[in-house]
Specification:
The complex is a heterodimer of chains A (about 260) and B (about 260). Chain A is an alpha+beta fold and about 260 residues long. Chain A has nine helices and four strands. Chain A has helices spanning about 10-35, 45-55, 60-90, 105-110, 110-135, 160, 180-185, 190-220, 225-255; strands at about 140-145, 150-155, 165-170, 170-180. In chain A, strands 2-1-4-3 form a four-stranded antiparallel beta sheet. The longest helix of chain A has 30 residues, at about 60-90. The relative contact order of chain A is 0.13. Classes of the chains: A alpha+beta (about 260), B alpha+beta (about 260). Chain A: One of its GO terms (cellular component) is membrane.
């Protein structure tokens, strides 16, 4: 028993990276879903657009968002590296494979599910993140009567917008904002995109039903009382509530709005 | 009275680890359903020998399900279609007349084929030699039970120690990962007081050797646990991860003693 190899080049070290980035991405999903529930408010996007400004301009959240981008990239790259190493560990495949007798389909196809999610992320970022950051969204002006709380809105042009600003004149709060809400509404009028989002959320559900509890196993977590709790969270929170919550957004804009 | 059946075997034949293998179709006729799977192969080999052909190589030893020598992936399942048994404990009544049975060796880069269905599992021996042992003082034999061990811990260690090192976990894993085997070997010592001396060095040394042998990486599918003839649990892998990560992040000084 001599000196040991560095942790991150070991199999368990790589699992640790997958596990930690995966859990971090899972926690992001909770925040992302709760924040985006504001899309369901019938206020012409007043709450949602203000929230979008906060999420893109508040320094601590920006730091977390860079961690998030890094996590996605690291998670995907490590997945690729591990998949290649795992392929190399079995150069000749079985002629007949009885995988379904001993393991669940999603646990054996995390790479395929993950690829669907990665393609989805590219589409999703392009639709909203890119457009929001590159002045490709419409602009809106809200007038909120501070006495009554009534909010009225009107679309404004780029020349009227200048920058996000909130001013209070005569007890009326005027907010000029990028109208990401309108962009969401516009994007989800495309039935193809709506179907793709729903499929991606199904992939996400199956990815996380295995992934979330698997991450804790990789961390070495084994406890009679708490492992069932984690498995419950895997299925009900990350496999049901979160994907359905997200899938309802495109469906809501397509069918209801 | 035993029922008799005729079977079509698709057997992997490979001269040695340097040559390419292929499937060869062999008829197995008049097989009694009371025979074990290995007895069926014995009959097939007798026929082949009489015909002057090379018999099919396969590993076996005790034929009582305890030595871990027999292997074979039968119709895509390590140790065949049943759970919790080795190939030698599989009987032909699990098959039916006219069935085609595909027989393959354990497939893993770390388990090169020696011949036909026999693979070289010395990678497991090298992992054991890297740290799967305990220090024992020389001198008089100590009295039994002088070290008190809670029954719960003793049972848990015993469960891990029931691993026979057959390699079905590697064969079943889509990634050809050996983590169930290695974790069982690490666990049995990590749990017991006698194993504490080398506890954290062991976890690191055995994981290093496992990686060096070219086994894949665990993705927690649970296939190993399902196919293990001895019912070794996935909680062993969690324990190995814990032992290894604890060693790396909290017990690093233990490995600086020697350089």
């Amino acid at each position: 028993m001599s000196n040991s190899k560095p942790v991150l080049s070991s199999s368990i070290g790589r699992k640790l990276i997958m596990s930690l980035t995966g859990i971090f991405l899972c926690t992001f999903l909770i925040v992302h879903l709760i924040g985006n529930l504001q899309l369901f408010k019938d206020d012409a996007g007043y709450a949602f657009n203000n929230y979008a400004y906060l999420m893109t301009h508040f320094a601590p959240i920006k730091v977390v968002s860079y961690l998030l981008y890094a996590s996605i990239i690291i998670h995907a790259i490590y997945a690729l590296v591990l998949t290649l190493k795992n392929r190399a560990a079995r150069p000749i495949a079985y002629a007949q494979n009885g995988g379904k007798a001993n393991s669940k389909w999603n646990s054996r196809n995390m790479g395929i599910l993950g690829t669907v999610i990665l393609v989805f992320l590219a589409t999703h970022m392009n639709n909203f993140w890119w457009k929001y950051h590159n002045d490709q969204t419409p602009y809106i002006e809200y007038s909120k009567d501070l006495a009554t709380g009534v909010v009225t809105s009107k679309e404004i042009s780029a020349s009227e917008f200048h920058d996000y600003q909130v001013t209070v004149v005569n007890n009326v709060e005027v907010t000029k904002a990028r109208d990401l809400y309108k962009q969401v509404d516009f994007a989800f009028q495309n039935i193809g995109l709506v179907i793709f989002y729903v499929i991606a959320m199904i992939a996400l559900a199956f990815h996380l039903i295995h992934g979330f509890q698997s991450a804790f196993q990789s961390l070495g977590f084994a406890h009679k009382k708490y492992v069932p709790l984690i498995k419950g969270l895997s299925v009900w929170l990350f496999g049901v509530i979160i994907p359905i919550g997200f899938a309802l957004m495109p469906l809501y804009f397509y069918f209801v709005k | 009275m035993a029922q008799h059946m005729n079977l079509t075997l698709k057997v992997w034949r490979q001269k040695n680890d340097k040559t390419k293998g292929q499937f060869v179709t062999i008829q197995a006729n008049n097989i009694a359903d009371d025979m074990s799977f290995l007895e069926m192969l014995d009959i097939v080999n007798e026929d082949l020998t009489r015909k002057g052909e090379d018999p099919v190589y396969f590993d076996h030893d005790c034929r009582e399900g305890i030595c871990g020598m027999c292997s074979l992936v039968i119709n895509g399942r390590p140790h065949g279609p049943k759970y919790g048994i080795t190939t030698c404990q599989l009987h032909m009544r699990s098959f039916h007349d006219g069935q085609t049975i595909v027989i393959e060796p354990w497939r893993a880069a770390a388990f090169p084929v020696l011949k036909d269905l026999a693979v070289d599992r010395t990678a497991f021996d090298r992992i054991q030699q890297a740290g799967g042992y305990v220090n024992v003082n020389t001198g008089g034999v100590p009295d039994a039970n002088t070290i008190a061990i809670p029954k719960r811990i003793a049972d848990e260690a015993f469960e891990s120690a029931t691993c026979i090192g057959c390699g079905a976990c590697v064969a079943a894993c889509k990634n050809a990962s050996a983590m169930l085997f290695v974790s069982a070997k690490i666990s049995q010592f990590a749990l017991l007081p006698q194993g504490q001396t080398e506890r954290y060095e062991r976890a690191q040394a055995m994981v290093d050797q496992m990686d060096a042998e070219g086994f894949g990486n665990c993705t927690n599918t649970g296939a190993c646990e399902a196919e293990c003839p001895k019912g070794i649990k996935l909680t062993n892998i969690a324990r190995m991860n814990r032992e290894y990560l604890t060693a790396k992040f909290f017990r690093e000084e233990d490995v600086h003693v020697q350089s």
